[in-house]
Amino acid sequence: MNIVVFVKRVPDTESKIRIHHDTHTVVEEGLNFIISPNDEYGIEEGLRLRQALGGKVTAVSVGGEEALTVLKKGLAMGVDEAVLIKDDLKETYDGLRLARIIAKAVAARFADADMLLFGRMSVGADNAQVPAMTAELLGWPQATVVTKLAVEGTAATAYREIEGAQEKVTFSLPAVVSAQKGLNEPRYETLKGIMAAKRKVIPVVSLAELGLTAEETRPGIEVRKLETPAAKAAGRILTGTPEETAKLLVELLRGEAKVI
User: Fold this and answer.
1) How many helices (H) and strands (E) does the chain have?
2) Residue 223 falls inside a structural domain
3) b/e per residue, 10-22, with b = 16+ CB within 10 A?
4) What residues make up the domain containing 126?
5) Helices 68-77 and 191-199, interaxial angle, to 10°?
6) For position 96, what pLDDT does the model report?
7) pTM of the shown model
8) Which of 36, 97, 112, 117 could form a Cys-Cys staple with 122, CB 3.0–4.6 A?
9) Burial (Cβ within 10 Å: 0-12, 13-18, ≥19) of residue 115
10) Within this chain, do residues 197 and 235 fall inside the same structural domain, yes or no?
11) Using one digit for the tens of pLDDT, what is the confidence trace for 142-177?
12) How many whole angstroms separate alpha carbon 181 and alpha carbon 139?
């Protein structure tokens, strides 16, 4: 089984984010970067499918040469190969642009893939658009936000958590699947894997080599403002008798919080 897992380099979720207000970008100086946590579920599922069914797993990232570090981590976790699709633009928050690049890369270099695995969404952009858009551009079946996956021959069954229920989806391969927390427990890199990853050469493919034009890769979204969330107000402690505090709590929930 030929599996391609797409991963993204994102700021560590423990990092303090600062905004460059003139350029509407995140200040990268001093930030630690990691694989988007949801993408690790995709890597782990690819490795488990390879173990059960044979084949190979390839990790792919779209971004600058800085993304080579997250691809190295994928190799250390156990993927067979890694490829960088070099894109010099910083985060554009344009899911369709990224899906176009990925779909073109799949058609040009991974046309024999049986499955494309993604995390359900990347940390930072949080739009959860790219997997579904990629599937649509390729004309492939898709299952998003998957918490359980089984493959048998050229067919697959996925389970998705929906509000108040679980949805079962069956589809044929090749297909696109996005992984949700609960699908598996991602493994850690091993020392042997880390040493092997250091020796591997990661091919770098330009957008031009994929046949993409400037028009196709022009962002369709303009970022006019970027800011961190407002600080949360401190909590309030209500004092008085139980009757008094209960009455005040209801008044606050109705008048200030507007939840009742």
Assistant:
1) 6, 13
2) no
3) bbeeeeeeeeeee
4) 2-206
5) 130
6) 95
7) 0.86
8) 36
9) buried
10) no
11) 999 999 999 999 999 999 988 889 999 999 999 999
12) 26
